Amino acid sequence: MIVIKKVKELTSIVGEKKKAGLSIGLVPTMGYLHEGHLTLAKKAREENDVVIMSIFVNPLQFGPNEDFESYPRDFERDQKLAEEAGVDILFAPEPNEMYPKPSMIVMNVVERTDRLCGEKRPGHFDGVVTVVTKLFHLAQPNRAYFGLKDAQQVAVINGLVESLNFPLEVIGVETVREENGLAKSSRNVYLTPTERQLAPHIYQALKAGRALAEQGEKDAEKVINETIAHLNEHTGAEIDYVELLSFPELTPVQTIKGQVILATAVKYSNARLIDNIIFECE
């Protein structure tokens, strides 16, 4: 595995790989790797000749009161884990390498962002599509891999690729969970021991909502209320939201039909956790 920190070096190597007719899989991350990220890398390894992972804590997607400075970082550990997962090229630029001067073009996402986390994070997905667009141009991947734990991000990036005709495939990979069901997240390190015991009930609450729908309940509000009741009773967390939406369009539904997402965000003392279940009903 080689580590690259400069844009020109990456584009030079990518040019050589493309000229040789090799396929490229891209795994964009913000580092502090966990099993979820490594699952993306391993899937990319299975499906491509060359695997590029980026580690870049993107300042554009953090709001003024969010945790950019305190976002966990451990590059030496990440480098070792990436190599073990089969990554060929680790691209780890500094912010001034990705954004050497103010951009004359500003990207603005106008759909799929007014629900879920996007509703309370104005500008967040503008920052996401900006950095992802740059990474797509630099790495020229045939396939790009994203975890479905952040399903809204996957929906937005799918829309980006469709809208701008990027010649690549977006691969959404199922959420990687701990044995107790808790979704793997870089922010889990902020949970207290007690919160760690309670947090697996987030997934249990989502499963309770899905079970109600799969038993024939078509009223979205009743499924949402079932999920909320379980969260309130078992998680010990403050509920930020519980929503049931079409997927990937992320539009509200009253009657459950077709592919939908049941998603939640909850707040603990030092961590905000998200999770979701995507399922289909006739």
What's the CATH class of the largest domain, please?
A: Alpha Beta
Outline the biggest β-sheet: 6 strands, parallel
Question: Which regions contain 5 or more consecutive residues with pLDDT less than 50?
Answer: none
CATH superfamily of the largest domain: HUPs
**Spatial sequence of strands, sheet with the most strands:** 1-4-3-2-5-6
Radius of gyration, taken over Cα atoms and rounded to an integer in Å = 19 Å
Characterization of the model:
The protein is α/β, with parallel strands linked by helices and 282 residues long. The chain folds into 2 domains: 2-173, HUPs (Rossmann fold), CATH 3.40.50.620; 186-281, Pantoate--beta-alanine Ligase, Chain: A,domain 2, CATH 3.30.1300.10. Helices cover 39% and strands 20% of the residues. The chain is built from 10 helices and 9 strands. The chain has helices spanning 7-19, 35-47, 75-84, 95-98, 116-119, 124-139, 151-164, 193-198, 201-214, 220-234, and strands at 2-4, 24-29, 50-55, 89-91, 143-147, 169-173, 238-246, 258-267, 272-281. A 6-stranded parallel sheet has the order 1-4-3-2-5-6, with helices on both faces. A 3-stranded antiparallel sheet has the order 7-8-9, with helices on one face. Helix 3 (75-84) links the parallel strand 3 (50-55) and strand 4. Helix 6 crosses helix 7 and helix 9 (201-214) packs antiparallel against helix 10. The N and C termini lie far apart (46 Å). 38% of the residues are buried.
